[in-house]
């Protein structure tokens, strides 16, 4: 898999280099106009609180991602950005959609799947520091098809020390309702919608305080309506001794949800070789969840073109009003879930990143006429470990190749 990715990356580089040279040699662009980033990552996790089995089952899964982002400035005013991505993932717990306990069957139709998604955006920048952005996107996987729209506006001050920006995004998700085996014959009784609509907006204000200190303040609001529960997430009630005697059902949540988040990001430059980035976010929603996020990153510049940045993220949240562990829901409850992503937990993520970006690039090529160059501008690697207080553990490694044409 990794060999295929690297061969594909090399092919993209050679092809784009040829295209870039043929266009640029005609005088349509300047050196460094076109940028492309190719991201690949591998993620794996393990735990024992699968929502498919009512909060009591394996959470083991793996995910491979390949993403390509292209930025093309048409001129000094107009810019096009495009991204295309694919996730290949597997999940042991999804095998049990087709049965647990006395309903178990040997079938794994959804244990491996592919998600493809992409976005296209156009930005126009005028001389007064105003930027208008519009965009659209799509996503497709085995049980959901999504489309999205984006509208953004930003205004920079004349001295370039302040910027105010606002973005609004809309999503329309169409779901294929997949129920556990034991509920499929009577699935119509659950009366679930197969559509989810989401509108999200974010407002941010960035300020340069002095040469060594910058700050950004943000507010995010999201509203969702439609299918917010997952039909193949089981729930078991507290009226029996085991899986064979307890009443079971599927997850049931309200059909609307509002989310709010306030954040502040501080960037400090105490020395030329040291940068400090700090971020805090407070979140709450209509499900009853309240959360705090604290993130810090400290890049160390070893040389002019090589830096190392350790990072750490702390996160804590309260449980949703309707969360209960396996077998602890009461039959009188209106809503119920045993998805541990909606539980009360604390998590820690720690990792390190390496960034290599020589002034002339890692690989440098020049056109036949000699007036145009292209290069592999830089390489970035990240490694991280994640630990959650409910026992979930994960590991991720990612790489980013940056090209300029």
Q: What does this protein structure show overall?
A:
The structure is a single chain. By secondary structure, the protein is mostly beta strands. It has one domain: Porin (Beta Barrel). Helix content is 6%, strand content 55%. β19 and β20 form a beta hairpin. The chain is elongated, with a radius of gyration of 24 Å. The N terminus is likely disordered.
List strands and helices in order, with pairings.
Blueprint: H1 2-24, E1 35-46, E2 61-73, E3 78-91, E4 112-125, E5 130-141, E6 144-156, E7 162-175, E8 195-210, E9 213-226, E10 234-236, E11 248-250, E12 256-271, E13 274-285, E14 290-297, E15 300-301, E16 306-317, E17 345-356, E18 363-366, E19 373-388, E20 393-404
Antiparallel strand pairs: 1-2, 1-20, 2-3, 3-4, 4-5, 5-6, 6-7, 7-8, 8-9, 9-12, 10-11, 12-13, 13-14, 14-16, 15-16, 16-17, 17-19, 18-19, 19-20
